[in-house]
């Protein structure tokens, strides 16, 4: 910081570029070094002419070696924010990582922060995505808790179900699925139905605990309403996410 006050811009640029090279050698020794990533963020923020594309490339290389390096993920989010990377570009990045490894929990989580920005629910009916003309570049990714439009939710359900079929025991996709259930526009949304013909039983899962009687849950088979007795997953629970 002292050298910044006595050197011109080009000299400061070279000093910090040398620091970045030093940090890169440190990360090759320990790619999960908190201090190295934190200092790299500090240096990048002070560079007179930062090369954000190079920093994103570095993150890509590190995540290709270990997709759960959360220090690198934190640094990548900083780079994305500082450089103004479009949200759709980052969502495509998660597509690539998830496509190569469904067990990439960090990518699923990052995806959950991007979807509400890129595909928010429409403020007016009908439910499919409402896209207004953009007069400015899309915002950089930040964490939001807004709901996601139904059209995109259906696509996400299909994506995460592919992950289930690939590896039913991997928890990453199930965590993401649970998050999806809370993004629906409707208050009570049926997320899945399981039918057992042998036991003559139907299991219905909702996005949040409900009372099957109060919501008027009705089973229709071949167009005919059926007489059924709905039971919660626990006999003492009047409200349950599964009936």
Q: Can you list the strand order of the major beta sheet?
A: 1-2-5
SSE ordering: HHHHHHHHHEEEEE
| Number of beta-strand segments | 5
**SS element count, helices:** 9
The largest sheet, given as strand count, sense and whether it forms a barrel, is: 3 strands, antiparallel
Strand content: 5-15%
pLDDT averaged over residues: 84
What is the CA–CA distance across the termini? Answer: 63 Å
Q: How does the overall form come out from the CA principal axes?
A: elongated
Unreliable spans are 140-145
- Please state the structural category: mainly alpha
| Rg measurement, Å | 24 Å
* Helical percentage: 40-55%
Task: Kindly describe this structure.
Helix content is 51%, strand content 10%. The chain is built from 9 helices and 5 strands, in the order αααααααααβββββ. A hairpin with a 4-residue loop joins β1 (190-196) and β2. It is mainly α and 243 residues long. It is elongated, with a radius of gyration of 24 Å. The protein has a 3-stranded antiparallel β-sheet with strand order 1-2-5, with no helix packed on it. α4 packs antiparallel against α5 (70-83), α6 packs antiparallel against α7 and α7 runs parallel beside α9.
